[in-house]
Design a protein that fits this description.
This protein is an alpha+beta fold. It is built from 21 helices and 26 strands. The longest helix has 26 residues. The termini are far apart. The C terminus is likely disordered.
Length: about 750
Amino acid sequence: MSELFDAVDALIASRSPLPPPAERKRLRQAHGLTLDEVAAALQVRRATVSGWEAGKTEPRPPERDAYARMLKQLAQLYPAVAPVPPEDTAIPETPAVPAAPAPSAAEPAQARTAPTGPAAKPANTALRPVAPAAVPRPAVSTRSTSRRPAAKRAAPASAPAGGADPRYENGPLAVVDVADGQVLAYCVGGLVLDVPAKSIPALVEWTLCEGRLGQPKLSGPGKDADPLIVLTGAACEHYGLPVTLTQQERLAGRLPEGHKVIKQLTRANWQLTKRGFGPWARIYRPAQGSERACVQLCIPSWDALDTRHWADAGQLPPADLARLLGTYAARVMTPRGSTAVTGLELMTALHPPTRASEPDATGKRHSEHNPGSLGKDPVDCAPCEAPDGHPLLADLPRFHQRTPAEVLVEEAYDWARPLTDAECLRPHLVGIDVNMAFAAGANGLNVGLGAPTHVKSPVFDPKLPGSWLVDLSHVDLSRVKLAKQWTDLDGELLPSPFTPKGERPQGPAWYATPTVAYAVELGYDVRPVEAYVRHDNGRYLDAWYNRLRDAYLATMADLGVYADMPPAEFLAAMDGYRQRDPQLAIVVSAIKATVKGGIGKLRERPRGEGWKPGQPWRALARPTWRPDIRAAVISRTRINMHRKIVKHAAFTGQYPVAILSDCAVYASDGPSPLDFLPYRDGKPLPGGFKLGLNPGLVKHEGTQSVLWGEGVREQFNAPELNLARYIKDGTVTDQDTGE
């Protein structure tokens, strides 16, 4: 009989009632849950939960019953409400709500000034449900000035209509400018606020007490983002700061300690971080319990916004700059410094080092390690992972050059070869570029979370993150396994997958796990001599990848390029996409720089400060100083590229003539990637290059003539000049040094 009961229970669970797909998403977002958190709780993939919310698939037992239980509890906390009648003031959702789809960068808010920029769209007045005991936010009143309307806020309310955090109803940041003697704060959505503060300490107080600026945390145990204030040149002048730094101040990266503004902050009991008052200054008071009092300043005229990544953003009018930075903040996070710094901070924001424990016997909670994070304390790297000058290498002779058997060198490709006679007869050189290649390399990658364990004569385990000393010189690229079948290739036309310069290894060398695993995949035995492995490991970068991928895809969609376009349409949409909205194009560049910079920061080198080889430097004190993770990501990125190259060569007989990081150049009979990429019935070669927007797919980088390529190599007397470096626009300014 019990078997019959079990069968009945299973039948009921298989039909557990679920709300409509849109309601499932609303309930999750109302509670501030991410797709990753729900997926982890239900022990399914993130894409599975996304499919349930999109209505593409339906959950099945046993997950269905648990999913229905979660939604039922959320529905009790966040009951659906009727829309506000048209005559009421409807406040659109702010872009700072965690896990919500990022709004268009031009989406305005009611009772705010009209948005600027070419991509302005009508307001979206869709409402979210109000949490229990919440009341609608009072309508915003405005008053006119001689220049433009400046919003004046009503008294605080317990929660705004739409479920947004009332503490941050004005968005994550503001650009402060001065015109006609009036100080104004330009916020996201076209909102402009009067700023009564007459000094930097007063501005900090206003930001924290009245500005209602900030951004909710990205992860349950994390911290809310501090408000960001961007000061224009006019605002700097108004508050007693220099509009530009002197050469000495620029080299120091800060104002001198005796500057009057720093003295004002000291008298008001505000403190600066160790980097002082520079382009990205953090002003704070020590936290009182869980209460934080911290404001981030950004000063574009001090070169806070690097033109390599932010183009001319620092020269934009205040409203346009607020729109641009607000879009980045909503989709990535509020900037904390350079794009590299923000990329690293995003990792920590998504995996905070600690969390609150369960209540003890007295009912108190304590701080404990957050599983899946890097923790709050730094760990030593393995000696082979340490860069030159690291304290672990202090006993080495001063000018000692470490060999591949002493140091792990996992870097991106910089390889080129002369063209064959057959390739010289083709008219075109076509470059293809992998979208967000390092982000794709991080996706799904198992990395070490804790300290390494030294092992002698280990058996290689492709699932175990680490660094392995192994001889891969026996791997012959002229005969490799593809899909478990041996395949013959022209190995002379291929770079080695094991070295950045594409040279075949000459003996034992240190490699990250993805590199050694690829040697096994190609059909060759590996016998490591020793290894530093990390038994405490996990997919630490998955949430980071998802956040940046979604930011990239959403911004490209705003520019008219979508992830599901057919190849020809995709190439057409990519042509000139930056001109459709130059400001959003800057956001795209900043997102890409956040990926590369964040990975690079994992092995930050000394930056002046009187450092000498053998001494520790400041970055070593961070838990996120992890050269092993950086090496693993770069290793996997390079291997991903090589795998596609090999598949393409086996299927078409075509080989690359140059590779630089994520760009590969091929000789082609036509000027388009479609002239040499194998598509059949609109479908690409499985495992090869595929045109598209998603990370890991490729786009057209540029086309030049074969005559151009041979000409520049002859001009610089460099038969192996890396043409991938110049394929985009054909401009060669100096001999290729590989830097």
